[in-house]
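for the writeup, i need someone to sanity check this before i put it in the appendix. the sequnce is what the collaborator sent (i think, or maybe the updated version? ugh). structure was predicted straight from it, no edits. if anything looks off just tell me and ill rerun, i have time this weekend
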Amino acid sequence: MPTAVTTVQPTRTNRREGNNAPIATVPFIRASAEHREPAGIDVTRAMTTSDQELGVFDIPAFGYVRSIVLLVEASGGVGTGLSAEEDAPWNVLKNIALTEPNGAVIAQFNTGYDLYLANKWGGYRNSVGADPKASPVYSPVASSGGGFAFMLRIPVEINLRDALGSLPNQNAAATFKLRATLGSVAQVIAGTVTTPPNVRVRAYLEAWDQPEAQTAGQTNQITPPAMNTTQFWSSQTFNVSAGNQTIRLTRLGNYVRNLIFVLRRGGTDRSTGHTDLPDPLTLFLDTRPLDIIERNNILNQMYERTGFGAKHGTITPGLDTPGGLDSGVFVYDFMHEFDGTLGKENRDLWLPTLGSTRLELQGNFGNAGTLTVLTNDVAIAGSVFI
């Protein structure tokens, strides 16, 4: 679908010539150009028995930032019969945060596994390329040495179709900042590790260039639509008991774009999440039942909007495998109205909330554990609706 265009009023010359039609302004992404460069972040550390701060890094100033891409590679380890812990290798990174020049947090992920879920279920790429486990860059934890590799994107831009959410990044004296922590070897690799691997972390900036004001006599849209519209990722973890529970979500006040639920029995085991989830689960909005959804319905809905978990001939990808669903993970989105899949949305389904809004989950949990809720919400700075 073509990108929506803005218009300018006819000039006096246009009227004198009898042309009163609005003059189309060239959309931002047509006037701009995609840009990518290394962010000057290249850190290698040997894993140890403790977490290690990787540091706080400046993101290069250029145009309008779209995302920060992280490439993580581990090698040089020694061991036998090694395997991945439940959230590995993604959880080799922890406490990941991208902050604006004023210090405001845009995206904060407690673990790299949460960032993995945001990549896979966040609607930032077509589902064919959204699963980081299906990437040619990805390799799981090796049984000998514990090496692995993956690439993840910290999202800033919301919508590929019009660059909504890309943020100005043109002041070298006031830069976006990235911080992260390297997790301990035991959190990532199970078994006897004789020599822990070295982990190399590199980062790349994805951005839009600054368009010229005019090109070939046509006026350009020189900023992304509704500039300074900002999306946020945050997480909350709730303790749940076996039996009927009501959980009130408190990350409200903006437009809610996506909710990702991660259910762990005993706080550690996602493998039982698909059986422990309430069936049905009820989502209440200001004490009214917004949706009463059975477990099979939500799993099928996730498949319908992404294709993840789809059969290939007679083979169905297993949980936690490339192209499959994720154990204990349930996605409830408000961003599928463009073509029925996640992302590229017109924003019509975003859920408007106030600080006083009551958004609650209710249902009968099969066992005690924890429920982590990843919330993707948007603060708008202008007209965002197409």
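DSSP finds six helices and 24 strands in the chain. The CA atoms of residues 262 and 337 lie 24 Å apart.
thx in advance!!
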